[in-house]
Amino acid sequence: MKKLIWIILALTILCSCKKRTTEQDNFAKGADIGWLSEMENSGVRFYANNGNSEDLISILKSKGINSIRLRIWVNPTSKWCGTEDVIKQALRAKNAGMRLMINFHFSDSWADPGQQNKPFAWRNLSFAELQNSLYNYTKDVMQQLKANDIKPEWVQIGNETNDGMLWQEGRASTNMQNFSNLLKAGYRAVKEISPTSKVIVHLSNGYDNQLYRWMFDNLKEQQVEFDVIGMSLYPNATNWKSKNIECYNNMLDMIQRYNKEIMISEIGMAVNEAENCRAFIEDLVNKTKSLPGNKGLGVFYWEPQCHNNWKGYTLGAFDNSGKPTVALDGFLK
Q1: Annotated domain spans of the chain
Q2: 292, 254 in Cβ contact below 8 A?
Q3: Tens digit of pLDDT for each residue in 296-313?
Q4: 253 contacts 213 by C-beta, under 8 angstroms
Q5: Which fold has domain 31-331?
Q6: For residue range 112-166, what is the model confidence (pLDDT) as tens digits?
Q7: Degrees (nearest 5) of the Cα angle 288, 86, 55?
Q8: In angstroms, rounded to a whole number, what is the distance separating the alpha carbons of residues 85 and 120?
Q9: Is the pTM of this model over 0.90?
Q10: Which H or E run contains 140?
Q11: How many Å apart are CA 173 and CA 30, to the nearest integer?
Q12: Most buried of 28, 44, 85, 287, CB within 10 angstroms?
């Protein structure tokens, strides 16, 4: 009898450990590395903490990163972040055993809360034509990914769409129905090619509950289908604790209000605040993991590999010698 009890106890502990391991493995610890091709082409190199020159993705994996995010532009003036470049980097990520998020900007360059410029080739289209172009383009990219045996686990329809996308026609504050129809077109295009890919609607300022309620109440009213609410969060060394709490409360509200999963699609902090950034990442990962129903999917750092003031960006997590700072250790916890 005692032997049987010990066997049952051992099996219970084993099952519990397997469950915790599975939950941990399912959590995305990610990095957006859309600049990588251009950086490498410019001769930028990356080094592990021991000083050895290594492939960036290998270095990121050593810091607990298991997922890669790649932005895609329609017709960029250079080849970077175009379809060919993204497929090349997506294959590289896949071959390294990484999970993948594709982030459609629906622009020839950056799309964010301050700019949602239509691609040049779409500038004179009617709204019906614009909607059709978004659908066809999204479907074509997804088909090309599929042809290369790449299946993104997550797909963002738009980037930081606080006020919609493809302005002016798709500006949410002036025509929520148009923005909703664009999201519907993107969702349909993704699901027709990759039904299991989770579609993300992404806003900035993850601490701003008023913004999120305004947007997602309206999208619910418009019957927009999507799978995940994406958030960005860029605090500083003095306010990250309060911003994390506000973001966590916002995540809880989004789950209760809309029953959606949550992805922190972008984070960052000043590179010279690495210790604070490490604590910020560790705390945000823990908060996101603790969301009810395992609805917290992951946390992605935006362009952590930036160093030596690359493109003037100062929120990376590599020092000027090309090595990761202690900030990324926040993903190891």
Answers
A1: 31-331
A2: no
A3: 999 999 999 999 999 999
A4: yes
A5: TIM Barrel (3.20.20)
A6: 999 999 999 999 999 999 999 999 999 999 999 999 999 999 999 999 999 999 9
A7: 75
A8: 19
A9: yes
A10: helix 127-147
A11: 31
A12: 28
